[in-house]
Design brief:
heterodimer, A: mainly beta, globular, B: 738 residues, Immunoglobulin-like, Ferric Hydroxamate Uptake Protein, Chain A, domain 1, Maltoporin, Chain A, 3 domains, five-stranded mixed β-sheet, 48 strands, 5% helix
Chain lengths: 320, 738
């Protein structure tokens, strides 16, 4: 163990992305930036007693971008399966998984909601949902068998269903982007309600950011402290442990088609954010672009507020 | 007339005696203040001779005053001639200078009668090798069979094994680390190190619990006649060593080193938005040796080693795009060992060597929101009885235990790394634990006899047996071993060695809250066949050649398992041919080593694939020349087959953690560019009467070649770039000794 830790630290030190690589926070190609699983009053969690789910229906809301796609036709796949053990290293896939259920496959969609021309970066109106009550009985039996085979501690703390959302150009399925989000099912946890209301993208002085900054500006996400829920898990002895949620903000900013230029403060067309993740209230320096934006599109700044239990809230600012 | 001549003769005698002078003095080794005994000192033209005593003193009486010449011609030293106008009694100090104060051969390897595969490297000569940066342990990279470790890695990988298959010991006692931060410096003061042993395939049963091999540092045997001190300053650290006799029979040496590499790194990252070093990385170590014979038959030696590394930094942006790698990072890691050693000679035929090491290990690590804290009380015990049963049979029996009790507290995600490609840390299942007094005791017993069929037999056989008990997993592992030596002629010997080598799983692999308690030990069969030729002639002292093949067959290797966390499903093999030549022809020294090898692994889900540390070709060439006025220039060239990496077939975005998880196809499917590096070293020593000043300039990668060390992937694994190795890296050092 003594040798493992320095190795981890060295791994961390050497894990800095070279400037020639695309940045996670810079939106350029076809992307899924977030996925909301919203039941009635809760997020990304459901109770399961081995037979029925509550809530059984969850709205599925993706945050998408196809910034430089020019409005090309897109399609998506939505399906789910029991987690094969991603936390232990199993590949994140439902391939060959008998618990897989297809919800909507090869479904094309057009611009809608905030996913519209010319930026094509935002939330389309898809009206998607997963209805767990319609799960085929044979598959439900597998979920029940797996769940009832767990210890009471594991059932209380929950296991996850992986909900996959894949997006691809309708005419080129080889460009497919595969993403997933966990839906926790348990028989004892109080379900997640957050991140809640009162969220805001603000400047350093607390005023709301309603338009794109034109000068260097320090930004922050405002999250009321009351939004932090407490929840209970059981430790390895079955004793309850009360934990408080932690919240972080993932930042996304549109960028030019040229990947290398997106990492260069002197040639990016959309500006530059110093940090890709912040805690609530933590300042993030925005450097305005020095190069004019191409005619015909706006810049988009997105902050996705995330709690550590799968809850998402999307904050968005678009240039006027 | 007769009486007159008698008076005249008497008068002459009286006059000559009354004008005779005494010349006395002391002979020292120039630059060291060490006296020389047994030196013949001549006075010309009187042709008188005196020999220095134990204190280096000489004395001439009744020398006729006038112009005389004092001549000293001692083997290994520059001839000394002093013309003296002697007008009366005179006391003179003479400093003799060694013929070559930079007497470095490229590599010295010596053989141990109890272990045919052991190679021992002299500390001073190893430290002076190009690329070693004055640290002898770093010179181990030059030996055949040692895989090249990448970049600033501090791992020693032996003959296609895994890094964790190498055990590090000091005077036979296990220590957790061999190198400080980044592998720049070993943890034990080089000036307190006599030599280090390298044990690879086929090593004998007095060591165990390592499928790869052993790297053992031997502390110095002190032979002090006076107080000595030395100090050094180099690019990364500086240190001080004091040595002194204590009482009539005791001897003490104590030294310490402290680094300032952190200040260098701090200036590199100054002004960075994303990364700030709050506490500069630093390391330091202390060492102490004390020895004293307790009686004619009982020797006592006490070795102390203490080492500490610290690093703190703040990463505002997630490192590698992984949100969990953000925030405060800190790591303090340290250990110390107190090692009393006793050597008791019962009789001419029997001896017992007993030693124990007591100490503590500690780690405090914070990685973003994760942490790991460890406090370990460690004790190792070694005892060996050597009994010469007959002229042809030596019986060695012993024990080799490692006991440890730990308090461990951690909140860590599970690290999944397959194919050298880790999953983002944030996607690993987080485990929290606070464990007290967890024992991980390992016991070893061995018999290691040496037998010759007859006194004049050309055969020497070493049939050994080791029995290990791994208490945490309650498993006994017997491990038979056998090595044999056949002396074909006085300069050529043939060697065969092999056996079974078992190794306990790592603590994190069997710990109930983090691993799989039902995991078992791993093992490997070793086989080595080789030939060794002594090339020494009168002008080529120390020249030799070795050539041999090795094979390792690994079984029950611990591998990650998505159901049981870890399993024993891994298998593997490593085969190779290694050869080395050392050739010394004053003032030139040459060393060449070449290893051809192949290392593979397999597991239930994958057929045989090349292992991460497979290096088909590894060539090392070293040449050095000793020049006049104590200058030396040496150079090293290395060529190694490029490292292996895994390019995933696809990746899936984990929207909870804002990372992509790679989906692997075949493992280690990308062979990167070959590694080539040329190092250059210049040494100079100034020798004054009572002290010396040494300077070295060691330039690694003198051509500034951009070697590829690995691949760095974009966040979605669709594109990648190469990670380059160390650029040109000069190390400069000064050392003063008196």
């Amino acid at each position: 163990m003594l040798r493992l830790i320095p190795a981890l630290l060295l791994l961390s030190l050497t894990a800095c992305s070279p400037d020639t690589m695309p940045r996670y926070a810079t939106v350029q190609g076809l992307r899924v930036l977030g996925l909301n699983l919203n039941g009635t009053g809760n997020l990304a969690e459901a109770s399961f007693n081995g037979a029925t789910f509550n809530p059984a229906t969850l709205q599925v809301t993706p945050v998408l971008s196809d910034l430089h796609g020019g409005g090309r036709p897109l399609s998506f796949n939505l399906y789910y399966c029991l987690d094969p053990g991603v936390g232990l290293g199993a590949p994140p896939t439902c391939e060959g998984n008998a618990t897989r259920v297809d919800v909507s496959m090869n479904t094309s969609f057009g611009p809608s909601g905030t996913f519209t021309s010319p930026e094509f970066t935002g939330i389309p109106t898809l009206g998607l949902s997963i209805d767990l009550s319609t799960m085929p009985p044979a598959v439900l039996a597998l979920y029940s068998a797996r769940f009832t085979s767990l210890t009471s501690i594991q059932r209380f703390n929950g296991i996850s269903i992986l909900v996959f959302f894949e997006i691809f150009p309708t005419l080129s399925s080889s460009e497919k982007i595969t993403t997933f989000k966990r839906l926790f099912i348990s028989d004892g946890r109080v379900l997640n309600q957050n991140p809640g209301t009162g969220l805001d993208l603000a400047r350093e002085d607390g005023t709301s950011l309603v338009s794109f900054p034109t000068v260097e500006t320090f930004l922050k996400a405002v999250v009321p402290a009351s939004n932090l829920e407490t929840y209970t898990v059981q430790d390895s002895s079955g004793n309850p442990q009360t934990l408080t949620e932690s919240i972080e903000v993932a930042w996304f900013l549109t960028g030019p088609a040229d990947i290398e230029c997106s990492n260069d403060k002197d040639c990016t067309t959309d500006g530059f954010l110093a940090l890709s993740r912040t805690s609530p209230g933590e300042l993030n320096r925005f450097t305005p672009p020095k190069v004019p934006l191409p005619v015909g599109r706006d810049r988009v700044l997105i902050g996705i507020v995330k709690d550590n239990r799968g809850g998402n809230a999307v904050l968005r600012v678009q240039a006027l | 007339m007769k009486s007159n001549s008698g008076w005249i003769l008497a008068g002459l005698l009286v006059s000559s005696v009354s004008f005779a002078a005494t010349l006395e003095g002391e002979v020292y080794i120039r630059g060291s203040r060490d006296t020389l005994r047994g030196v013949n000192v001549f006075v010309l033209p009187a042709k008188q001779r005196a020999e220095t005593d134990d204190a280096g003193r000489f004395k001439f009486e009744n020398i006729v005053p006038g112009k005389i010449k004092l001549v000293i011609n001692h083997p290994g030293f520059i001839r000394q001639e002093d013309e003296i106008e002697l007008s009366g009694d005179l006391s003179k100090i003479v400093y003799l200078e060694r013929e070559n104060a930079l007497l470095y051969e490229t590599t010295i390897e010596s053989k141990d009668t109890r272990d045919l595969v052991k190679r021992t490297l002299n500390q001073k000569k190893a430290a002076a090798q190009p690329g070693a940066g004055a640290d002898p342990v770093r010179a181990i990279q030059n030996l055949p069979g040692v895989n090249r470790s990448q970049g600033f890695s501090s791992q020693v990988i032996i003959q296609g094994s895994a890094p964790q298959d190498t055990r590090y010991t000091i005077d036979g006692h296990e220590i957790p680390l061999i190198f400080h931060f980044g592998g720049l410096s070993s943890v034990f003061n080089p000036d307190l190190t006599e030599s280090f042993d390298f044990l690879s395939a086929g090593y004998q049963s007095n060591y165990g619990r390592a499928m790869g091999g052993i790297l053992n540092l031997n502390s110095r045997d002190l032979e002090l006649k006076r107080f000595k001190a030395s100090g050094f300053v180099d690019t990364f650290n500086s240190g001080l060593l004091l040595e002194t006799p204590v009482g009539e029979r005791g001897q003490l040496a104590v030294g310490g080193r402290i680094s300032y590499i952190g200040q260098v790194l701090k200036s590199v990252f100054k002004g960075s938005d994303n990364f700030s070093l709050t506490v500069a990385p630093s390391y330091g170590d202390v060492g102490l040796l004390y020895q004293r014979p307790l009686s004619d038959r009982l020797k006592f030696k006490f070795t102390v080693i203490g080492s500490q590394d610290a690093l703190d930094f703040i990463a505002a942006n997630p490192l590698g795009g992984d949100p969990s790698l953000r925030g405060n990072f800190s790591n303090q890691i340290g250990f110390f060992r107190l090692i009393p050693q006793f050597e008791w000679t019962h009789s001419a035929r029997s001896k017992t060597v007993f030693s124990t090491a007591l100490g503590r290990d500690f780690i405090n690590t914070d990685i973003g929101k994760s942490y790991f804290n460890l406090r370990t009380i460690a004790a190792t015990v070694r005892a060996e009885n050597r009994l010469r049963v007959s002229d042809t049979f030596l019986l060695n029996t012993g024990m080799d235990h490692r006991l440890a009790w730990s308090d461990v507290g951690f909140k860590l995600p599970r690290v999944f790394n397959e194919g050298g490609l880790p999953n983002p840390l944030s996607t690993g299942e987080t485990r929290i634990a606070d464990l007290k007094n967890v024992s991980s005791n390992l016991f070893g017993f061995y018999v290691n006899p040496v037998w010759k069929p007859a006194v004049d037999s050309r055969w020497t056989l070493h049939p050994g047996l080791r029995l290990d008990y791994f208490a945490p997993i309650r498993e006994w592992r017997p491990a038979p071993r056998l090595s044999a030596n056949y002396q074909l002629d006085p300069t050529l010997s043939l060697i065969a060695a092999g056996g079974l080598y078992a190794q306990a799983p790592l603590e994190q692999q069997y710990a109930p809250t983090f691993g799989n308690p039902s995991i078992r030990s791993s093992s490997a069969w070793h086989l080595r066949l080789g030939a060794e030729k002594d090339l020494s002639a009168s002008l080529t002292k120390g020249s030799e050649a070795y050539s041999g093949v090795f094979a390792r067959l690994f079984d029950r290797l611990v591998i990650p398992d998505t159901q049981s966390i870890f399993s024993n499903g891994g298998k593997g093999q490593a085969i190779g041919w290694e050869t080395s030549v050392t050739y010394n022809l004053d003032p030139w020294n040459f060393f060449g080593a070449y290893t051809l090898s192949r290392s593979t692994r397999s597991d239930p889900s994958r057929s045989s694939y090349l292992y991460q540390f497979d290096q088909t070709h590894f060539l090392t060439l070293i040449a050095g020349v000793n020049l006049k006025r104590n200058w030396r220039i040496s150079s090293r060239f290395r060529y190694v087959t490029g490292p292996l990496d895994t390019i995933p077939v696809s990746a899936a975005g984990d929207l909870d953690n804002d990372v992509f998880i790679p989906i692997r196809g075949s493992l280690f499917n990308a062979r990167l560019d070959a590694f080539m590096m040329l190092d250059l070293r210049i040494d100079k020593r100034w020798i004054y009467d009572t002290w010396t000043l040494s300077l070295y300039l060691d330039i690694q990668n003198v051509t500034n070649r951009q070697n590829t060390e690995g691949l760095q992937f974009a966040y979605d694994y669709k594109t990648y770039d190469t990670v380059k190795g160390i650029p040109i890296l000069p190390t400069f050092g000064l050392k003063g000794e008196f």
